[in-house]
From TrEMBL:
This protein's name: Enolase
Lineage: superkingdom: Eukaryota
A Pfam family that the UniProt record links to this protein: GRDP-like
Disordered: annotated span: 1-21, 552-586
Every GRPD C-terminal domain range: 436-617
Organism: Actinidia rufa
Feature: compositional bias, Low complexity: 1-17
Length: 723
């Protein structure tokens, strides 16, 4: 390599001017003869099939797949490739490149048929297709399919090739980040173009760690340092951790490609979007001369909107000099709008608290407009900050039911105000009401449970409990129409109902849903396996089976990460952890799992907590169906156990945390950068510590609730709900 090529990491010559390598675009560094963005989008469809295939969980099928690939597929491809090369050279005097992964929907059927014919001709005794059922196309990182992510990944891949070609002599091994690795795999799927593009650096490619190879921390750090010296930017990015590191710590959120959102039918619901955020800090070397001030200074991260209580502090003195340090790694709802970094000084002995010296703001919309999904800010002329994000993608819905006032048959709250509006005509019927709030505190639905009929007249008549079969539950779409203060009318549109029906001998309760599904419930309190058992008969699809499993299952199970992050999961010991897992059913958790030909091992589509009336569900699961399940289970268990296990007798809106103070699900910390000092349950998945996060379930601190006789009184509601 020439001396000019190794001119150093600080800059390159450009006609007499000097530019930092961080200012050079990917197109200026390395030429690639493939449209990697389009290729990656096509290849990801294939990778999604392979990554989530059921047969990868079974050793015999893996062994058989390797045998067929080694003994059958590769010899066949070799012969076809040789024939293709000979044909091109005889016809065109050159080799015409073609991709190895040719996954175009327009010709997929033709390609499959042609491949099958060739296979059968070559291997008449070997079946072309084995009866292995592939699961639905999914990736754990749905943002990878977003165009802006792929464009940024292509730019970083070209820089990686430039770095390898120019500055890798002193590096024994290079470890590609996950976004770079994605582009490398796709580049290799075009073997002719790849061979031409890599001709000058063919000898260097052996230094790159492949996806299946083990890497150590030293190799990752060496790659990071080389990248930083060359481009003066952090090596890792949001959605692009160094290969070998990301897999060791699973992220605390579960998101997947949402092929269909069935809840678009409900105008009262708005989708929830999540993005991954990383913030890096680099201190200038002159900071070392300011040790006194530096010891008092700290950086505070907060979000622009939705979670005003969030304040995560990092002492400036803990940051290394002249190298990039990942200070924060978190997941934010798009509604948080952005993050703000405050440089604060704790002041002297007489100064209480801290004062802001300077701050920097990173807005999500500004970051999305940047082609690299990254922006840099300077603070106090001593610290450089880089914020990086992934494109926002749809995340599971979050809904919770909170108590509200009793309503009549028409949906109006029982109130003197309503009575005067109706010219003092008595309000007939009594329904227990719950308001359904989404992740941002918006009203989505109103749930009403029929308890009594009749009306109240002073000294004459009182409402009476309706028959068991008439104690229906209905869900209305929309929010209350308030006429005065907190007194209002329920929305008119009914979108779902649950009607109690006579259960069979082995079940204690049964409900018929307006969706056509039937829920059967049994409480096994007298056996060695005490607990709640549910069974669903669904009519939504003949080839789909639905199961309600007690506790948190599949992606909702608690995850044990590295030992240094034990404080992240509620600071519990191993014994407490095991005990909590065993108590999941008693805590009210149930997981909705759907089985089908495409998902033979099952797919968890919803998590319910019927005690707290809180649900999380994927966009492909119907919100009304999940709410009906949750309400019906709570009503049945309350009646079977003869106790108010879910505070159904509360008939007033309880005081909750002020909207925007600590909105649940709006910010979740990645466990890799958490510590016991940052242990707020509001920065963790809600189901890790549901009782604390769901503030409205804590009635112990609420003032005494007084209910009027007009509403019906406690005796009436106890008779209609738990007896």
């Amino acid at each position: 390599m020439s001396a000019a090529g190794r001119a150093g990491a600080s800059g390159v010559s450009d006609g007499g001017s000097t530019r930092s390598l961080s200012e050079i675009s990917g197109e200026e560094t390395v030429r690639v003869g493939v449209d990697l963005v389009s290729a990656a989008r096509r290849n990801l469809v294939f990778l999604r099939v392979v990554a989530e295939s059921d047969w990868f969980n079974h050793r015999p099928t893996i062994i058989e797949a390797i045998r067929r690939y080694d003994e059958l597929w590769m010899p066949l491809i070799c012969d076809l490739t040789v024939s293709y090369r000979q044909y091109c050279e005889s016809r065109f005097s050159k080799l015409i490149g073609k991709p190895a992964i040719f996954n175009n929907e327009e010709n997929e059927e033709y390609a499959l048929t042609r491949c099958r014919d060739i296979w059968i001709s070559r291997y008449p005794s070997e079946p072309f297709e084995i009866n292995w059922v592939l699961m639905k196309n999914q990736l754990r990182e749905p943002y990878m399919l977003e165009m802006v992510y792929l464009i940024a990944a292509r730019k970083r891949y070209k820089r990686f090739l430039y770095l390898m070609q120019r500055f890798s002599d002193g590096c024994a091994r290079l470890v590609p980040a996950s976004d770079i690795l994605l582009m490398w795999v796709n580049h290799q799927s075009y073997p002719t173009a790849y061979a031409a593009d890599m001709r000058e650096m063919e000898g260097d490619m052996g230094k790159v760690a492949a996806v299946w190879e083990e890497v150590n921390v030293e190799e990752v750090e060496e790659t990071k340092k080389l990248w930083e010296r060359t481009f003066d930017q952090p090596y890792e990015t949001a959605g692009g951790e160094a290969n070998g590191c990301a897999a060791k710590i699973k992220p605390p959120v579960h998101w997947e490609v949402a092929d269909d959102d069935v809840n678009v039918r409900y105008k009262s619901m708005l989708p929830r979007f999540l993005l991954e955020v990383c913030v890096f800090v680099k201190l200038d070397s002159k900071t070392k001369a300011m040790q006194g001030t530096k010891s008092r200074e700290f950086l505070r991260l907060r979000v622009v909107r939705c979670h005003r209580e969030l304040k995560i502090d990092e002492q400036v003195s803990t940051f290394p000099l002249d190298s990039w340090h990942k200070a924060w790694h978190l997941y934010c709802e798009f509604g948080t709008r952005g993050v703000v970094l405050d440089l604060r000084d704790r002041g002297g002995r007489c100064f209480k608290g801290s004062k802001i010296k300077e701050n920097a703001t990173f807005l999500w919309n500004d970051l999305l407009r940047a082609t690299s999904l990254a922006l840099e800010r300077e603070i106090d002329q001593r610290a450089r900050l880089v914020s990086l994000i992934t494109p926002p993608v749809q995340a599971p819905y979050l809904l919770k039911c909170v108590p509200d006032r009793v309503t009549d048959d028409s949906g109006a709250m029982i109130s003197d105000m309503i009575l005067r509006m109706n010219q003092y005509r008595p309000q007939e019927g009594r329904w227990l009401s719950r308001t359904v709030l989404d992740h941002a505190g918006r009203d989505c639905f109103v749930v009403r449970m029929r308890v009594a009929g009749g009306f109240w007249r002073r000294g004459a008549e009182t409402p009476s409990a309706v028959k068991w079969e008439d104690r229906i539950t209905e869900i209305r779409e929309g929010s209350w129409s308030y006429v005065a203060g907190s007194i209002g009318l329920a929305p008119a549109k009914v979108v779902g109902t649950a009607t109690p029906i006579k259960p069979s001998d082995q079940w204690n309760a049964s409900w018929k849903f307006s969706t056509g599904d039937e829920l059967m419930i049994r409480w096994e309190a007298s056996t060695s396996e005490s607990g709640l058992r549910c069974h669903l008969k669904t009519e939504t699809s003949s080839d789909t089976m639905v199961k309600l499993s007690g506790g948190r299952r599949m992606q909702y199970q608690r995850r044990n990460n590295d030992s240094k992050n034990k404080g992240y999961e509620e600071n519990t010991s191993i014994e407490e952890e095991n005990q909590r897992e065993g108590d999941d059913e008693d805590d009210g958790f149930m997981t909705l799992v759907r089985f089908s030909e495409e998902n033979p091992i099952g797919k968890a589509t919803a998590l319910l907590n019927w005690k707290l009336l809180v649900v999380e569900f994927s966009p492909e699961e119907d919100a009304v169906f999940v709410l009906l399940l949750c309400i019906s289970i709570l009503r049945s268990v309350s009646e079977m156990r003869k106790e108010d296990v879910g505070n159904l007798l509360v008939r007033r809106r309880l005081k909750e945390a002020r909207l925007g103070d600590r909105d649940w699900g709006s910010v979740i910390l990645h466990p890799s950068l958490c510590s016991p000092s940052i242990s707020s349950p509001h920065l963790q998945p809600w189901y890790w510590n549901a009782k604390v996060v769901m503030a409205s379930d804590d009635i112990s601190r609420q003032p005494a609730l007084n209910y009027s006789l007009v509403e019906g009184g406690d005796k009436l509601f106890k008779r209609g709900l738990i007896s």
